[in-house]
Amino acid sequence: MAEKENYLLTTKNVNLFYGKKQALFDINLSFPKNGITALIGPSGSGKTTYLRSLNRMHDLTPGVKVEGKFLFHNNDIYSDNFDLVDLRKRIGMVFQQPTPFPFSVYDNVAFGLRLGKKISKHQLDEDVEKALRQAGVWNEVKDRLGANALGLSGGQQQRVSVARVLATKPDILLLDEPTSALDPISSRVVEDSLLDLKKEYCLIIVTHNMQQAARISQTTAFFNDGRLIEVGKTREIFLNPKEEETQDYVSGKFG
Ligand SMILES: Nc1ncnc2c1ncn2[C@@H]1O[C@H](COP(=O)(O)OP(=O)(O)OP(=O)(O)O)[C@@H](O)[C@H]1O
């Protein structure tokens, strides 16, 4: 694929091995500066494995070998001189279960901002508010910033987790089934905040929920057996896929 300037992150020929077992095969996929890309596919198809490779989460797992190119602003994130702390700020991750720390809402969001640099209380207040607004949860928490984040509802906790990632001003948000632990109403509220974020950020979301992928993403990538079978405009993937395997999956024949 020709490298286009408007891609923020481009992965080329990605292979990944858990010990001797190969879990990803020759994945070529690029992500634009703004918008939502959904990664779909049956259980065990490699979606999460691929997502986690995008901010080097596998570095922590012994026996994992990652091959290929991961060009972010044209630098390879796996090169030795790429600073890992900086990488994780610029490519943030939101997990399936909301992950608030057991301290106040404010401190949860301020956490990343306080790491490594001095920041005034005034600036911190502004940045915390901005991140909570962007994550669509400010109105619900503005009067309880000092309360323990664990006391919030699941949907609010998940949006606070999104705010915590946004506070460090990332370019990319990786979201691993961010609504699967939530009830349908909270899920829709989180989806709405993701839809707002897509104007400014590159979001990459793993989801089992095909309606969700269809509702919020502009691009969909279909994985099966560790391979990228097809990628395209979400509408095309759902209504007019090129590959029979994709057709079978989106029509519910397997998965
Ligand atoms: N830590 C690990 N060690 C060994 N094999 C693993 C590990 N994590 C995942 N795998 C294997 O890699 C393959 C891809 O798994 P992965 O979790 O990426 O799939 P997935 O599409 O995200 O599945 P799900 O939708 O169920 O989360 C599977 O065969 C899985 O068993």
Automatic annotation (TrEMBL):
- Looking at the record, the residues that make up the ABC transporter domain are 9-250
The GO cellular component terms are: membrane
Q: Which CDD domains match?
A: ABC_PstB_phosphate_transporter
Its keywords, alphabetically, are: ATP-binding, Nucleotide-binding, Phosphate transport, Transport
Q: What is this protein called?
A: ABC transporter domain-containing protein
Could you confirm whether the keyword Isomerase appears in this record? no
Checking Pfam families in the record gives:
ABC_tran (PF00005)
A biological-process GO annotation? phosphate ion transmembrane transport
Q: Which InterPro entries match?
A: AAA+_ATPase, ABC_transporter-like_ATP-bd, ABC_transporter-like_CS, P-loop_NTPase, PstB-like
Q: Name one GO molecular function term.
A: ATP binding
